[in-house]
Amino acid sequence: MNTKLFTIAGTSTLKGENTFRFATGKVSVRAYKLGRTGHSNIALQELPQPMTKQDAIAFLQSKGVQAVMPVGRRSVQAVEMTEEQIAAAAEAAKKAAFVARMAEARAAKAAAKQAEEDAAFIASMGATALLAAVDADTTVEG
């Protein structure tokens, strides 16, 4: 039984066929290597935890990803997901959605803080410029 675990899974298109891809390491490195060898529509992602090919396929299919195994390799046929795999995939999707929402919230909070600091700076500069203008008017008239 194949017990090799992968940390990256996804799909790519080669010669018109959309196939599953599995790897370990960094997504950017694997995507670059696939692109260099003629693959297109490369869609790889980090898996929530290391998975076998079957588990990774079940995870991707739970997200609506459809593809086939590459021809000429030892293939793992997509099988019906078990209750445990369905639950694990749902939990992973839920965690991924939560992480995405938290990242958006952090970005919005940082943008709001920056806007507040910018507004305060502009207001302080405006007041300084206004005071300088008033002083200049007073000096010229006086």
List the helices and strands in order. Answer: EEHEHH
Distance between the termini: 95 Å
Could you estimate the helical fraction of the residues in percent? 55-70%
Gyration radius over CA? 27 Å
Estimate the global geometry from the Cα principal axes: elongated
Strand order of the largest sheet: 2-1-3
The largest sheet, given as strand count, sense and whether it forms a barrel, is:
3 strands, antiparallel
As residue ranges, the low-confidence spans are: none
Total number of domains: 2
Overall average pLDDT: 82
Q: Which structural class is indicated by helix and strand composition?
A: alpha+beta
In total, how many beta strands? 3
**Number of helices, where a helix is a run of at least 4 consecutive DSSP H or I residues:** 3
SS strand fraction: 15-25%
Short structural description:
With 142 residues, the protein is an alpha+beta fold.
What are the main properties of this structure?
alpha+beta; 56% helix; 142 residues; elongated; 3 strands; 3 helices; three-stranded antiparallel sheet; 2 domains
Describe the structure.
This protein is 56% helix and 20% strand. By secondary structure, it is of the alpha+beta class. It has two domains: 6-81, no CATH class; 82-142. It has a three-stranded antiparallel beta sheet with strand order 2-1-3, sandwiched between helices. The termini are far apart. The model has no long low-confidence stretch (mean pLDDT 82).
